[in-house]
């Protein structure tokens, strides 16, 4: 099994088109070290993940029943080769969701500059925590 970078799940090279089946697989996925596995009461099945196992596609500032960015569900930002910053949010355990571009724009719109360890950083604040995206000096003049 494989999860492509765009979030499409594949079995034996064919995309899985049934959303309830994908949701079932996602609910039993775990990360063990560097590998992803689907854990059933009987076995563990390895699954290849091209980038992140989930995609974050929607943001709500005031809803409690979704994964809220906080200490248990932090944001992290990595430098991509050609796409600039790639944002991720932890869903559970060591399983992360790639934040899709439209949602990333929403995060940037909520961004602000704060002082972190004697340096100004641009980032977002959620649940009393600040999640830095990049140094403020990197975005000045944009």
Commentary on this structure:
By secondary structure, the chain is α+β, with helices and mostly antiparallel strands. It is 16% helix and 46% strand. The chain is built from three helices and 13 strands; from the N terminus they run βββαβββββββαβββα. Strands 3-2-1-6-5-4 form a six-stranded mixed sheet. It has a four-stranded mixed sheet with strand order 7-10-9-8. The N and C termini lie far apart (42 Å). The relative contact order is 0.14.
Describe the structure using short key phrases.
142 residues; alpha+beta; six-stranded mixed β-sheet; 3 helices
Strand order of the largest sheet: 3-2-1-6-5-4
Please give the share of residues in helix.
10-25%
Kindly report the oligomeric state of this protein: single chain
The rounded Rg comes to: 17 Å
Total DSSP helices: 3
Structural class: alpha+beta
Categorize the overall geometry: elongated
Pattern of helices and strands: EEEHEEEEEEEHEEEH
Measured between the Cα atoms of the first and last residue, the distance is 42 Å
Q: Major sheet: size, sense and barrel closure?
A: 6 strands, mixed
Q: Say how many strands there are.
A: 13
Low-confidence runs:
none
Note the beta-strand portion.
Answer: over 45%
Mean model confidence by pLDDT? 87
Please give a quick description of this structure.
This protein is of the alpha+beta class. It has helices spanning 19-27, 101-110, 136-139; strands at 2-3, 9-11, 14-15, 29-32, 35-39, 44-49, 54-56, 75-80, 84-92, 95-99, 112-116, 119-126, 129-135.
């Amino acid at each position: 099994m494989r999860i492509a970078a765009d979030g499409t799940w594949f079995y034996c090279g064919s995309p899985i088109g049934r959303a309830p089946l994908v949701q079932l697989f996602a609910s039993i996925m775990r990360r063990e070290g560097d590998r992803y596995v689907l854990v059933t009461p009987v076995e563990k099945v390895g699954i290849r993940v091209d980038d992140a196992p989930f995609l974050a596609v929607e943001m709500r500032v005031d809803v409690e029943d979704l994964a809220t960015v906080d200490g248990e569900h932090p944001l992290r930002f990595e430098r991509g080769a050609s796409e600039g910053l790639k944002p991720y949010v932890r869903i559970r355990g060591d399983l992360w969701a790639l934040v899709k571009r439209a949602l990333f724009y929403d995060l940037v719109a909520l961004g602000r500059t704060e002082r972190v360890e004697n340096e100004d950083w641009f980032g977002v604040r959620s649940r009393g925590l600040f999640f830095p995206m990049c140094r403020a000096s990197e975005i000045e003049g944009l």
